[in-house]
């Protein structure tokens, strides 16, 4: 199907999704809004599918996402080819861009030091998206990112996946918090004491508690949402609640006495995976290699 | 208008928006999908407006957002009244929830220490959303959050606004980066050297450069996106690019020699504001007072 798609229409669809409206796409492409509308309609007739939901901003349908991913991969290949031909700087193409999605705890611990090892000659621009794994998958599917660190081993269509290693999480709380809330049976205490979660979708703590209590998770108790990795750790250290913190972030605070480990016999190991487009991009291959090496040093073996 | 809205229909609309589909709302409310659909249609007939875009997930229209905000405020008032009447714990209502939106740099510096000063008796659950100010406004308008730290002084409908203070940003880079990229005229160097921005919408650095150069912003040079406050600072310290870092985060690294201040005569002061619902909630009033006090200690006076 793909090689029969009229590329001008495909690029127009991409512009509409990126700009959010037909009018904005028209002004970005220097054509009239009715030309934009006409091209999208032709593409929909040719593919026999509705490609855009006409919301504000517009959203691609599932079929639309396939075409959008194709459009982004096309733009990428074109850019790489031009860079290899030395056509980059001359016509303002700029450096290679590598959009990637990373979960917050990786970004706060091992991922950024890994990126600083990537040689910057020629320069490579890292465009990081900080996302939980559910949305990461959508970003890969739409082609918004070329690669992602995710906790899901299921490859997105058009992507390869490889295991990076395990992140160890420890259940911790401040000594003051433990003295106030954690004086009885450990499992019941952790089920009822105030809890910190990353956001509404963070189920790590609940899963941990269910493992201790044969199913009860204390869903109705006080729970704070603190949606940054460092803020989460700081909120635990400040005594707002208990929570699961990556061992590399918890260890210094445990040693200095600001955090107590609550269940030393029950660490939680979460596997991380690297997913990336099946695409022959030298810059992406270089980053993938450096990330895999750093993961091997920083994470626990699977 | 509001006091004539049938509350069962209003609550049903809220469930549809929160659950994302009519079917999910039906199962959350223990009624049939056709009952849900019927209630939403009746509410649309009564208000004379389309309230929902039938997308997946559904989205409220602008009129729908007004009703949704009313529904959330209603739920809040009911909850507060029941808590004051001592009906909280008895029927599993749980602690008071305070959803708030905060920009990333505030969350990484002064905001979390402020929250730890709020007495936790009775417990108050902080549900923090980390958002740039554009999306913050949408969260306030939909009633998803009750309050927000934002850089916009324009009050969202139904909200009050007050100034908190100024955050000072310093242009910084690592000494190695400065030796490689910043050896000529400062304004031209900052316009052309690799740059770190928070995300696609972060225009702080570009605005700063335009102020130095009479309008040029070097839009085509290498720019990395690092969407966490601590990661941004770490990426600058690692030499990936220069960037504007809050003074409280930059100062320790300037003192230890890991960062250089690039334009000591041109700090950038960004005002912050507190917006909150016009709603008589004791818990919200308490948090607003503590936040204002902490801002006065941590931020620069306006």
Biggest protein-protein contact in the assembly: A-B, 42 and 42 residues
* Mean residue pLDDT of chain A: 86
How many domains of chain A? The number is 2
The separation of the N and C termini of chain A measures: 40 Å
pLDDT < 50 stretches of chain A:
88-92
Bulk shape of chain A? elongated
CATH architecture of the largest domain in chain A: 3-Layer(aba) Sandwich
What this model shows, in words?
Two copies of one chain form a homodimer. Chain A is an alpha/beta fold and 302 residues long. Chain A folds into two domains: 1-93, Winged helix-like DNA-binding domain superfamily/Winged helix DNA-binding domain (Arc Repressor Mutant, subunit A, Orthogonal Bundle), CATH 1.10.10; 95-302, D-Maltodextrin-Binding Protein, domain 2, CATH 3.40.190.290. The first copy, chain A, is 46% helix and 20% strand. Chain A has 13 helices and eleven strands. In chain A, strands 3, 4, 5, 6, 9, 10 and 11 form a seven-stranded mixed β-sheet that branches. In chain A, helix 1 (7-19) crosses helix 2. The two termini of chain A are 40 Å apart. The A-B interface holds A 53, 55, 59, 92, 94-95, 99, 104, 107-108, 112-113, 115-116, 120, 123, 125-130, 194, 199-200, 220-231, 234-235, 238-240 and B 53, 55, 59, 92, 94-95, 99, 104, 107-108, 112-113, 115-116, 120, 123, 125-130, 194, 199-200, 220-231, 234-235, 238-240.
């Amino acid at each position: 199907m793909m090689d029969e798609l009229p590329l001008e229409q495909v690029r127009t669809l991409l512009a509409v999704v990126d700009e959010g409206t037909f009018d904005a796409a028209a002004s970005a492409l220097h054509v009239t809004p009715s030309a934009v509308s006409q091209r999208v309609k032709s593409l929909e007739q040719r593919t026999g599918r509705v490609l855009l939901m006409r919301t504000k901003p517009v959203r691609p349908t599932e079929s639309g996402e396939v075409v959008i991913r194709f459009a982004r991969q096309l733009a990428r290949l074109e850019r790489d080819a031009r860079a290899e031909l030395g056509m980059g700087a001359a016509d303002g193409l700029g450096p290679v861009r590598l959009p990637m999605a990373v979960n917050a705890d990786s970004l706060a611990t091992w991922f950024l030091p890994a990126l600083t090892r990537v040689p910057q000659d020629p320069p490579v621009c890292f465009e990081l998206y900080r996302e939980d794994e559910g949305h990461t998958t959508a970003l890969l599917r739409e082609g918004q990112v070329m690669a992602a660190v995710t906790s899901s081993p299921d490859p997105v269509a058009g992507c390869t996946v490889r295991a990076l290693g395990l992140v160890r999480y420890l259940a911790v709380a401040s000594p003051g918090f433990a003295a106030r809330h954690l004086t009885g049976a450990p499992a019941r205490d952790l089920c009822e004491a105030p809890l910190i979660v990353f956001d509404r979708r963070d189920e790590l703590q609940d899963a941990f508690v269910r493992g201790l209590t044969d199913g009860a998770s204390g869903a109705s108790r006080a729970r704070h949402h603190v949606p940054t990795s460092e803020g989460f750790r700081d909120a635990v250290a400040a005594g707002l609640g208990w929570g699961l913190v990556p061992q590399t972030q918890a260890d210094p605070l445990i040693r200095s006495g600001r955090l107590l480990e609550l269940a030393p016999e029950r660490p939680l190991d979460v596997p991380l995976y690297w997913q990336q487009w099946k695409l022959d991009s030298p810059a992406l291959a270089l980053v993938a290699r450096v990330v895999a090496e750093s993961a091997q040093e920083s994470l626990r073996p699977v």
